[in-house]
Automatic annotation (TrEMBL):
InterPro entries: SOAR_STIM1/2 (IPR032393), STIM1/2 (IPR037608). Residues 18-118 form the STIM1/2 Orai1-activating region domain. Gene3D superfamilies: 1.10.287.3550. The gene is STIM2_2. This is Stromal interaction molecule 2. Pfam families: SOAR. It comes from Saguinus oedipus. It comes from the Eukaryota.
Length: 169
């Protein structure tokens, strides 16, 4: 029993002196920053959906104020279409809120486990330059958030986005 206890104490001492490598910290911070960028694109797309739905609802409201507009709106499918767009925008915003909560909780837990900050870091340009400086890779600048809605949604974004890292001979 004493030998097992001494062995366990030695293992504990070895594990307690272990620290997270600096490179792992930087990779985690880079991963966090990339995830934040994709979240921001997703948020902008959801906000754009909501803005479009609001605009269409306003158009219907204006049509209703005319004499024949009420009759036209009542017999068209535009109300259903706008209602569907509003529901889709609400769903996207709800999913976004859930995604944000999960992401924040997950990164807080990772920070607790690792014992260093991940969310507050030197920023994407600094992290990429330090992580890719020792390689023959060139980091392409990240795509800025487009000022227009993403036609296929965020899921199709990878197909349209230029590669992050390109190799040169």
């Amino acid at each position: 029993v004493r030998m097992a206890l001494k062995k366990a104490e030695k293992e504990f001492e070895l594990r307690s002196s272990w620290s997270v490598p600096d490179a792992l910290q930087k990779w985690l911070q880079l991963t966090h920053e990339v995830e934040v960028q994709y979240y921001n694109i997703k948020r902008q797309n959801a906000e754009m959906q909501l803005a479009i739905a609001k605009d269409e609802a306003e158009k219907i409201k204006k049509k209703r104020s005319t004499v024949f507009g009420t009759l036209h709106v009542a017999h068209s499918s535009s109300l259903d279409e706008v209602d569907h767009k509003i529901l889709e925008a609400k769903k996207a915003l709800s999913e976004l809120t859930t995604c944000l909560r999960e992401r924040l909780f997950r990164w807080q837990q990772i920070e607790k486990i690792c014992g260093f900050q991940i969310a507050h870091n030197s920023g994407l340009p600094s992290l990429t330059s330090s992580l890719y400086s020792d390689h023959s890779w060139v980091v392409m600048p990240r795509v800025s958030i487009p000022p227009y809605p993403i036609a296929g949604g965020v899921d199709d974004l990878d197909e349209d986005t230029p590669p992050i890292v390109s190799q040169f001979p």
